[in-house]
């Protein structure tokens, strides 16, 4: 799932080398903390949060196939 998230975000941003994803594993839940260049935060969030919402849906769907839950947090 981390690779999926990293691929999606790197395609969206202008500074793909600044994308950092930290993964926190729980028993049934994974939390992904996304850090990126300050200029790219708006691109990842999107207008009214639609882009990050779509990324969260894809991440949740991939996690559900594995019987887990996944959450995405954007850290500024």
C-alpha Rg (nearest Å)? 12 Å
- Report the sheet with the most strands, covering strand number, pairing sense and barrel closure: 3 strands, mixed
End-to-end gap: 22 Å
* Topology order in helix (H) and strand (E) letters: HEEHHE
Which structural class best describes the helix and strand composition?
Answer: alpha+beta
The named CATH superfamily: K homology (KH) domain
Share in helix: 40-55%
Strand percentage lies at 25-35%
Q: What is the name of the CATH architecture?
A: 2-Layer Sandwich
The figure for the number of domains is 1
**CATH first level: which class?**
Alpha Beta
Remind me, CATH topology? GMP Synthetase, Chain A, domain 3
Strand order of the largest sheet: 1-2-3
Mean pLDDT: 94
Shape type: globular
H/I helix tally? 3
Low-confidence segments: none
Number of E-state strands? 3
Write structural notes for this entry.
The chain is α+β, with helices and mostly antiparallel strands. The chain has one domain (2-74): GMP Synthetase, Chain A, domain 3, CATH 3.30.300. Helix content is 42%, strand content 25%. It has three helices and three strands; from the N terminus they run H-E-E-H-H-E. The chain has helices spanning 2-12, 41-45, 50-65, and strands spanning 20-25, 29-35, 69-74. It has a three-stranded mixed beta sheet with strand order 1-2-3. A hairpin with a 3-residue loop joins strand 1 (20-25) and strand 2 (29-35). The longest helix has 16 residues, at 50-65. The mean pLDDT is 94.
């Amino acid at each position: 799932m981390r690779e999926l998230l990293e691929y999606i975000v790197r395609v969206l941003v202008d500074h793909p080398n600044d994308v950092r994803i930290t993964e926190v594993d729980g028993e049934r839940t994974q939390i992904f903390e996304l850090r990126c260049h300050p200029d790219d935060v708006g691109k990842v969030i999107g207008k009214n949060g639609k882009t990050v919402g779509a990324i969260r849906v894809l991440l949740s769907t991939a996690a559900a196939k594995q019987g887990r839950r996944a959450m995405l947090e954007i850290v500024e």
